[in-house]
Automatic annotation (TrEMBL):
Family, as annotated: Belongs to the peptidase S58 family.
CDD domains cross-referenced by the UniProt entry: DmpA
UniProt signal peptide: none
InterPro entries for the chain: ArgJ-like_dom_sf, Peptidase_S58_DmpA
Alphabetical list of Gene3D superfamilies matching this protein: L-amino peptidase D-ALA esterase/amidase (3.60.70.12)
Alphabetized GO MF terms: aminopeptidase activity
Root EC class: hydrolase
Keyword terms: Aminopeptidase, Hydrolase, Protease
Enzyme Commission no: 3.4.11.19
Protein name: D-aminopeptidase
Domain of life of the native organism: Bacteria
The keyword Hydrolase is annotated on this UniProt entry: yes
Length: 355
């Protein structure tokens, strides 16, 4: 895409303005786009090693629990991740859980025997408006393809798990952003599938009314109305040395960035944030030494909280701006933001406050 979105906030972005600015993190995707099948898989790998034997600290916040995720209970209890993070549609959760279990067993044959079982971690959003979700097209092989494609460079918008997503009555998808503060990175990846068009807000400007008028003219149909529903999954990564308690506090601040875009975490919306740190790993084996390092002091968390909010807001905007218009099941269509308002980047630059 030739025109990028203006920077949100005052904190500097990382080199890629992506979750992969956090050292060691990679993202892989598999996209299924064929007629009524508009879905896919996105995976986030915290590091390139064996996640079961070398876990990373993590914690989650459930802002609104209208969702069907797998693995959150153990993350809350133990405060670690032991598989990659998988994102897809609601009915793909079972297939991806099995794929993660099989992947972990292949690397660690004693799982479930001499060793404990593995905790798969799968998040979902309902893409049933554009995708024939009843076809259950996502299979274990698609998870493997996404993992094999993992890289520091990846596409955003209507790709991977974002292929069938809708946001604010427009085309949603996968978005990412990062901020670099205090010598550390905070990177975010979102699966955006939430919001009502009248409330859509960009960098503090309420654009929902204008976009609703343009959408009516574009489609010759009235904009959708009703309460907020859908979901958003927000994955936060950092290289700051934080423990699980601090990571839960960081994950909670994703809600600040989400609210800035116009969301109220509606009754029918599953809004979940998970944060992890790559600063150290926690060994599976009792004989391996535990990490010995000082956690970041509490008084230094504010800059990371700010970075989390800004990165989430920016990542949501990237998800919508990078997406293309998609037509799927039964002729349903979601129009891309850039198709309705191609002048948005220039408009934001003209209206941005001066420091």
């Amino acid at each position: 895409m030739s025109v990028s979105m203006p920077h949100i906030g005052a904190l500097p972005a990382g080199a890629r303005n992506s979750i992969t600015d956090v050292p060691g993190v990679a993202v892989g995707q598999c996209t299924l786009a064929d007629g009524a099948c508009q879905t896919g898989v996105t995976v986030v790998l915290p590091h390139g090693g064996n996640l079961f034997t070398d876990k990373v600290p993590a914690a989650a916040t459930v802002l609104n629990g209208f969702g069907k995720s797998v693995g959150l209970v153990q993350v809350e209890e133990l405060g670690v991740l032991e598989t990659p993070i998988a994102l897809s549609n609601t009915f793909a959760v079972g297939a991806l859980s099995q794929a993660q279990i099989r992947q972990a067993i292949a690397a660690n044959p004693e799982i479930g025997r001499a060793w404990p079982t593995v905790n798969p971690l799968v998040f979902e959003c309902n893409d049933g408006y554009l995708n024939d979700i009843q076809a259950m097209a996502v299979q274990q092989a698609h998870y493997a393809q996404a993992c094999a494609a993992a890289s520091v460079d990846f596409a955003q918008g209507a790709v991977g798990a974002g292929r069938g997503m809708s946001s604010f009555g427009l085309k949603g998808g996968i978005g990412s952003a990062s901020r670099h503060v205090g010598g550390y990175h905070v990177g975010v990846l979102v699966q955006a599938n939430f919001g009502t068009l009248p409330s859509f807000t960009v960098a503090g400007a309420r654009l929902g009314g204008l976009l609703a008028e343009r959408l009516r003219a574009h489609t010759q149909a009235p904009a959708e109305s009703g309460p907020e529903k859908g979901s958003i999954i927000m994955i936060l990564a950092t290289d700051a040395p934080l423990d699980a308690r601090q990571l839960r506090r960081l994950s909670l601040r994703a809600g600040a960035g989400l609210a800035r875009t116009g969301s109220v975490f509606g009754h029918g919306s599953g809004d979940i944030a998970l944060a992890f740190s790559t600063a150290y790993t926690v060994p599976q084996q009792a004989g391996a030494p535990m990490p010995a390092l000082a956690m970041l002091h509490e008084t230094r968390l504010d800059t990371l909280f700010h970075a989390a909010a800004d990165s989430v807001e920016q990542a949501i905007l990237h998800a919508l701006w990078q997406a293309e218009t998609v037509r799927g099941r039964d002729g349903h269509q979601r129009v891309a933001l850039r198709e309705l308002m191609p002048e948005l980047p220039q408009w934001l630059l003209r209206t941005a406050p001066t420091n």
